[in-house]
């Protein structure tokens, strides 16, 4: 069974078409890297899959129409640049919102235990009692990952999770994701600007309002697909084509 089937999905913001006729089928257990230029509609796609923006077309998750999917199947790590750091809460409390679906005005001992375990899973137990406003970008990313993993989602959606994370933290992040995927069989969709990371995915989706390429990295990251998506072959992120630096 496909974890995700998207048929002819389109999203408009007023007159502006952010996504047009996107179709793809993601097998269960796949690790999909989503790449594409700024404004390509990558975040919009994840939001549509979460039911956060209205769309035309059809989305099925583990065989069910999106409207009938169990919300507990989904884990989401948003872009942290959209987060208000002044919110007066502890890391542990943010993680627990993933469990409870609301802000935990008082944490039960059970929820506290689970939140601590989720933080430990991403090597961040030491951050549990830190105010969110005092976390670095990379630390906050880890806390968000713990929040997404706490309910053990079958489908994990990550929006540029390595932003603000140093190289060591990035390697750790991919290790935690791999470990989680191994033990749970979850399907992962991750937006990234790191094409080197995309080479380690099972599938790459090259998006630029439409699907430019979808398939194994060596095919989707072909020179032709990348030229079509970006209009040129970039160098700023360290471009790899067919495993070789271009
Ligand atoms: N709520 C909104 N209202 C109007 N336009 C929007 C809204 N959200 C996104 N857009 C527009 O839709 C387009 C796609 O945005 P989106 O954030 O999905 O791109 P992206 O590929 O994730 O970009 P980036 O790599 O810069 O994060 C952009 O032109 C953006 O300005």
Automatic annotation (TrEMBL):
Pfam families: ABC_tran (PF00005)
Cross-referenced PROSITE patterns: ABC_TRANSPORTER_2 (PS50893)
Classification via InterPro entries: AAA+_ATPase, ABC_transporter-like_ATP-bd, Metal_Ion_Import_ABC, P-loop_NTPase
Listed GO MF terms: ATP binding; ATP hydrolysis activity
Gene3D superfamilies referenced in this protein's UniProt entry, alphabetically: P-loop containing nucleotide triphosphate hydrolases (3.40.50.300)
Keywords assigned: ATP-binding, Nucleotide-binding, Transport
Record domain ABC transporter: where: 4-234
Name of the featured protein: ABC transporter ATP-binding protein
